[in-house]
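--- STAGE predict ---
source: upstream dedup step, 1 unique chain passed
mode: sequence only
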Amino acid sequence: MYTALRLQRRLKHGEASVTIVDPHSYMTYQPFLPEAGAGNLEPRHVVVPLRQVLRGCQVLSGGVTSIDHSRRTARFQPREGEASDLSYDVLVLALGSIARTMPIPGLRETGIGFRTVAEAIYLRNHVLSRLDIAASSNDPAVRRRALTFLFVGGGYAGIEAIAELEDMARDAIRYYDGLGPEDMRWVMVEASNRILPEVSLDLSHYTIRELQKRNIAMKLETKVESLVGGHVVLSTGEEFDAETIVWTAGVRAHPLLENTDLPLDEKKRLRCTAALQVLGVDDAWAAGDCAAVPDLSKTDSQAFTSPSAQHAVRQAKQLGDNIVASLRGETVRDYRHPYAGSVASLGLHKGVAEVYGVKVRGFPAWFMHRTYHVSRMPTFNRKVRVVADWTLALFFHREIVSLGDFANPRRDFEAAATPVDAA
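--- STAGE serialize ---
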């Protein structure tokens, strides 16, 4: 979206036409997903409608299933109807990444990711509905299973997700008679010996201590062996039942890249130059998680930019400028940006941050997290809406309504339409 927006602003009228293909008609600002899942932000405010922002571009809702760059064609599959070929002169791939899963029994049937707005909304409703179930049952096994929440993967996505959702549930459980925070069990499983590898070791340890104070069990150097039927089996031999299993154990390049004739590296990412051009290929460009872009800010010649919003947003703008320069026969510029650091929210008024070597924790880090990401949020419209949500939250309690039926809104109608004799 940022690349298309840059092209829209810099290209002269009639100089070129821009077409965007995406399964959704909006762009998601993923760093705000934990806050949307926790109810701190309205979900519609963390997405940007493409047709509203990119008025000078053609937006096609659907997916590309394969690309033959030698023929300058992409196979386009609309959301409904027959597939067709799209012809192009210049290709931009900004596919991002998808969840990296493992062949764990039961994962596909019981797990849920945390990379889309739909998943964030579902998890919020699901967690609150588990509180409803536990408060309405006298069976200790039912209550224990409903109130056990497992998160797998201790990177930024997993830590922010478990911290924000636990914070929301702790706030909500006050309104449930017979339930208290001590009845909930939150478990974080991480295969390596630390969490948040993007920050220093002392901030990682600080985060663990803060989460443990909230009775979140941190299980490092532990793997999940099985999740069949929601029965969790860990590599340590521990077993328990959980109705909420969230998978945030890393990402991998979008599988579409394997259906192209473009060069890929060992991680199935596009091999790119520092100028964001696909290596050795004319008229093909890439940015973001799907691109292996050399990190010129480091002395290591084998270093690549990390898969983060920080690089993706900046690469997109440079990519737009380079495409315009290429079309006009001008010199393209290499992308160079030293890693500024990381910020993470651990729930309301809690966070960690490490920016240009300066370590911050607690409320200041949480404030830095919000300030930085609202500054990166696309469009003035969305910035205002996000700040308005935060401002209203200062005066009103969080909503604790579970709208779980949104997952199947036709259930009641189908039941009403079923003949009595058939029931």
